[in-house]
């Protein structure tokens, strides 16, 4: 299994489907933004072969060369997105989901009407610049994983009940049913209304807030790709502590100025200590002292029905391998088991196989990177029980014969949290 995201380059092309006019091109190399753009001849060829297939009623979805993977997707017969990656271990699943989340980001900030009825290409190009920061965050090496799993990145605060009560009370006082508390772009607590938001906005809104430069307060117009793709809403954000933001989704009211300091003080001043305890959760996801086996170097827990996930590569203080490598290993392992072993998640963009095939799919699998000998090779194990799927990255000291038992015990310990 290659380590997705190491080496190579990732390019994202957006074109008007009817005319083939490029709307933008974003690139990254080694996870960092890259200025090197693809030659126009390459862009034209990639779009031309796709259009040629359409004219012959042939649906071209992906292709592979010796060192590059290419995926095409058309949206509403208006926008064509193309992703091509020469990164080690690049997968079609990763690129397919990238294209879907990128189109969702475009709708979020521009609106579906502008994308499906392109009247002025140059004006659309200018409007799409507002989405570059968010789109670029999908091309890099993020500490979150919702772009790939299509689940909301969450954390578990030590005093969640207190924070939930304060959030619900504050939202009611502010006159909205949609509110959440974010730590570094991960949901700490949310109202019932917020959890009812559909995919992809439930994933995109926290991700967008995390991609913006820090500000004390914001009043941001957004469209909801699933719930309201043509009528904008307002996203209000308030910074409670550096890295900890309160988000409200509302209509014309309340005005940002109406959220006066007295209202904030009433609900949040008494909870300064529980709020401060949330700050480290942006990386760890789990409260300090949560019992985990010392062999666990990283974990990804998904609740496939609730569309929520916990993702951390820093559960303990071990330094090897570094967090960036751990994230790449878990992301690559997720794409492997999702594409080849486990049933597709509910509502995923991939086609589900027939039920008879599902009955033959495994509920657990493991992988050893390197020699399968005691003390050598990172261990990766995946386990699915009911709606929950757990992926673990384990140290080389963990014996392979005990992987399933360790994963089962860990999943049972985590089940009450998500």
Give a verbal description of the structure.
This protein is an alpha+beta fold and 418 residues long. The chain contains 15 helices and 17 strands. The protein has helices at 40-55, 92-110, 112-116, 121-128, 132-139, 146-149, 160-174, 192-195, 201-211, 261-268, 272-276, 281-284, 323-340, 355-359, 403-414, and strands at 9-16, 22-29, 32-33, 62-64, 69-75, 79-85, 152-153, 178-183, 186-190, 217-224, 228-241, 244-250, 296-303, 308-312, 364-373, 376-385, 388-394. A six-stranded antiparallel beta sheet has the order 3-2-1-6-5-4, with helices on both faces. Strands 7-14-13-17-16-15 form a six-stranded mixed beta sheet, with helices on both faces. It is globular, with a radius of gyration of 22 Å. It starts with 8 loop residues before the first strand and ends with a helix.
């Amino acid at each position: 299994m290659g380590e997705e995201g190491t080496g190579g380059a990732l390019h994202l092309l957006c074109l008007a489907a009817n005319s083939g006019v490029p709307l933008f091109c974003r690139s990254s190399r080694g996870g960092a933004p890259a200025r090197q753009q693809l030659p126009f001849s390459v862009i034209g060829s990639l779009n031309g072969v796709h259009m040629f297939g359409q004219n012959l009623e042939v649906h071209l979805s992906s292709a592979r060369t010796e060192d590059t993977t290419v995926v095409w997707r058309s949206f509403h017969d208006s926008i064509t997105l193309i992703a091509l990656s020469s990164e080690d271990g690049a997968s079609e699943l990763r690129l397919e989901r990238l294209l879907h989340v990128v189109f969702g980001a475009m709708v979020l900030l521009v609106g579906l009407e502008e994308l499906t009825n392109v009247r002025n290409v140059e004006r659309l190009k200018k409007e799409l610049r507002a989405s570059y920061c968010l789109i670029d965050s999908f091309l890099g090496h993020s500490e979150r994983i919702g772009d790939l799993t299509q689940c909301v990145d969450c954390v578990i605060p030590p005093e969640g009940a207190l924070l939930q009560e304060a959030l619900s009370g504050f939202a009611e006082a502010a006159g909205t049913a949609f509110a959440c508390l974010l730590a570094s772009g991960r949901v700490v607590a949310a109202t019932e209304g917020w959890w009812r938001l559909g995919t992809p906005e439930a994933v995109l809104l926290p991700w967008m807030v995390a991609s913006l430069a820090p500000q004390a307060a914001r009043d941001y117009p957004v469209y909801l790709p699933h719930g309201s793709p043509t009528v904008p809403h307002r996203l209000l954000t308030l910074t409670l502590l550096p890295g900890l933001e309160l988000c409200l989704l509302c209509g014309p009211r309340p005005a940002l100025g109406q959220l006066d300091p007295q209202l904030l003080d009433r609900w949040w001043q008494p909870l300064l200590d529980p709020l401060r305890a949330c700050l480290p959760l942006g990386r760890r996801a789990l409260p300090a002292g949560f019992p985990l086996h010392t062999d666990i170097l990283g974990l990804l827990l998904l609740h496939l029905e609730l569309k929520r996930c916990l993702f951390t590569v820093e559960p303990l203080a071990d330094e090897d391998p570094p967090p960036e490598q751990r994230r790449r290993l878990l992301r690559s392992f997720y794409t492997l088991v999702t594409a080849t072993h486990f049933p597709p998640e509910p509502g995923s963009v991939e086609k589900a196989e027939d039920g008879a095939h599902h009955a033959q799919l495994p509920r657990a699998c493991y992988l050893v990177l390197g020699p399968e000998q005691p003390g050598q090779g990172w261990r990766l194990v995946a386990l699915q029980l009911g709606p929950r799927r757990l992926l673990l990255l384990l140290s080389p000291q963990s014996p392979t014969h005990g992987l399933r038992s360790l994963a089962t015990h860990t999943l049972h310990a985590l089940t009450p949290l998500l």
